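re: the backbone from monday

yeah here it is again, tokenized this time
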């Protein structure tokens, strides 16, 4: 992994990894092209997505030859793929009222863990939904915990970390809510991979202090998504257009020992998406560097 030495709050070197979310590139971009574009834009690693689309979920069915080919591409391009954003469970959630869907959710989770093992991915970001297209209730929360427990056991067997993404729905829109499940299972293989943009919106909705909520996860946060949001808007914003508190949250995350950050943004049909990647890389690195220099300079 290419890592960057910066100055931390005490003046000593801090190394961090800045990843690129693959959906910042057009859907038809090949894996080889994504790796090349990631490096060329100044990012350290590529975060792959397994979402609800058939295109991306088909990766879970890759055979040994396809997986070997991707591993070889990763090695040849020198760009690490160490994290996976697994939002595919939104369509087949752990807590669904339908037992067939709940079974499907575990099947998808197992396949995602297997793929992670084969590609060298160490962290799977799991969307914090009990259900998404169904009403949430006491039963969905119970089934969520049941299937989560089984999934953490699968992850532990393979040595893969599962990190909750803090979402835009009330079920898990704060670090404190995610921490409740982390504490219930008390496994080193279950932690939190928060989205700082979502957390900013949540702090406005609930009227709490963003950094107090974030610091509640100390010791359990594996990485963080850096995403732009605005009140009531959770995606498709350009960096700097919204109200995300990059410097304050990154400063707090670094204090807690977090060193893995991923720029989460989307391809918005820009004429030159590669230029957009470079712009995002520069923006995010400047935010990280400001945070590393100290909160007073943000």
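seq for it, each position gets an aa:
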């Amino acid at each position: 992994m290419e890592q960057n030495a910066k100055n931390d709050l005490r003046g000593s070197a801090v190394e961090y990894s800045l990843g690129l979310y693959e959906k910042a590139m057009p859907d038809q971009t090949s894996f080889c092209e994504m790796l090349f574009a990631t490096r060329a834009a100044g990012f350290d690693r590529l975060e792959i997505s397994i979402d609800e689309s058939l295109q991306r979920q088909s990766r879970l069915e890759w055979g040994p030859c396809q997986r070997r080919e991707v591993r070889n591409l990763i090695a040849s391009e020198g760009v690490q793929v160490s994290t996976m954003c697994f939002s595919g469970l939104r369509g087949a959630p752990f807590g669904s009222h339908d037992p067939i869907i709940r079974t499907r959710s575990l099947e998808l989770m197992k396949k995602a863990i297997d793929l992670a093992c084969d590609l060298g991915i160490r962290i799977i970001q799991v969307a914090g939904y009990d259900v998404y297209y169904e009403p949430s209730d006491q039963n969905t929360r119970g089934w969520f915990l049941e299937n989560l427990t089984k999934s953490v056991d699968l992850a532990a067997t393979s040595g893969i970390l599962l990190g909750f993404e803090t979402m835009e729905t009330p079920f898990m829109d704060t670090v404190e809510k995610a921490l409740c499940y982390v504490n219930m299972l008390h496994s080193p293989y279950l932690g939190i991979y928060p989205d700082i943009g979502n957390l900013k919106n949540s702090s406005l909705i609930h009227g709490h202090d963003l950094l107090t909520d974030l610091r509640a996860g100390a010791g359990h946060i594996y990485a963080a998504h850096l995403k732009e949001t605005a009140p009531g808007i959770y995606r498709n914003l350009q960096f700097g257009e919204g109200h995300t508190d990059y410097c304050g949250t990154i400063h707090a995350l670094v204090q807690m020992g977090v060193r893995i950050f991923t720029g989460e943004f989307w391809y918005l049909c820009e004429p030159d998406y590669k230029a957009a990647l470079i712009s995002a890389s520069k923006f995010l690195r400047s935010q990280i560097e400001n945070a590393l220099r100290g909160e007073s300079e943000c």
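DSSP finds ten helices and nine strands in the chain. The longest strand covers residues 13-21.
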